[in-house]
Amino acid sequence: MPPSPYARATFLSSLCPGLGQLFQRRHAEAFIAFGGSILLIVASLGLGRISGRAAEVFFFMLLALPWWAFQSYDAYLGPSPEVSNWRRTWCEVWQQGQDIRFLGLLLLISAVIDSWIILMNLDYLLPFYCTKLDGIPGFLTKAISPLLHVAVGYGFMRLRRWGLFVYLLYAAYGLTNGLVNLSCFGPGRIRNTLLGAIVLSTVYIMSRRKILLGNPLASSQEG
């Protein structure tokens, strides 16, 4: 993708939603970008009050952060003289698979966070199919999640078809492990949130599978 002539506006919108659009004198879009971000952040905080901190972080990444990235990408594309700016931006995101790339970035960020949590809590025994392994086996079971996050995240950011198959492997592991642990240890806020996240993300990714399976660039490079 060629460098955008609106790099300054992109930087401004990445710092504060709507600031790049305001710099471009698109006042209505600036108000929508800023107001939408505030509403989604408040909604995430409200859901967190109801369901706990894990749900708050999940809904922030699911609702507020995608909108933040979306309006920054809108500033990157600049004003559209032909069609609605938001419609133009959404069409670009959909056709170029930027939503899948964004999910890949979230998974890479999640891998870093998971790795940090593991290193800071080496004594924590992660439930693994109704068992809590200790020592090296326990550390390896905790390492499964960040390793799969890295693999899927990279595959999604590069729009590789193998990224879809690795994701399905990750989803099958996460879903079966979560359901088995649910039957053994009962429901919990974090466990319920993770199960819901896997189901929702799998439905969405399968609805967008063509962008991975039909990506000509990925096919030519893999062939």
Structure description:
- The relative contact order is 0.09.
- It contains 11 helices and no strands.
- α1 packs antiparallel against α4 (53-77), α7 (135-157) packs antiparallel against α8 (161-185) and α8 packs antiparallel against α9.
- The protein is 80% helix and 0% strand.
- With 223 residues, it is mainly alpha-helical.
- The protein has helices spanning 7-15, 19-23, 27-51, 53-77, 85-96, 98-120, 135-157, 161-185, 189-207, 209-213, 216-222.
List the helices and strands and how they pair.
Blueprint: H1 7-15, H2 19-23, H3 27-51, H4 53-77, H5 85-96, H6 98-120, H7 135-157, H8 161-185, H9 189-207, H10 209-213, H11 216-222
Helix pairs in contact: 1-4, 3-4, 4-5, 6-7, 7-8, 8-9
Give structural attributes.
single chain; 80% helix; disordered C terminus
- Shape descriptor reads elongated
User: How does the helix and strand content classify structurally?
Assistant: mainly alpha
| Total of DSSP H or I helical runs spanning 4+ residues | 11
Q: Indicate the percent of residues in helices.
A: over 70%
Q: What is the strand content?
A: under 5%
Regions with little confidence, pLDDT below 50 for 5+ residues: 217-223
Rg over CA atoms, rounded to whole Å, is: 20 Å
Q: Gap between N and C termini, in Å?
A: 23 Å
- Average pLDDT, rounded to a whole number, is 87
SSE pattern? HHHHHHHHHHH
Overview in brief:
With 223 residues, this protein is mainly alpha-helical.
